[in-house]
Amino acid sequence: MESQRPSTPGPSTPGPFSSFARFVVCGGGVGLLSSAAVPLLAAVMPWALANALITVAATLLCTELHALFTFGTGRRPGWRQHLQSSGSAVAAYLATTAAMLVLHAVRPSPTMLREQAVYLTASGLAGIGRFLVLRLFVFAERKKEAATANAGHLPAATPAPAPVPTNLAHPAITATPARSRGPLSLATRAAGTLGTDPQRSTYSPMVPSVA
Question: Do 13 and 142 meet the contact criterion of CB atoms below 8 Å apart?
Answer without folding.
Answer: no
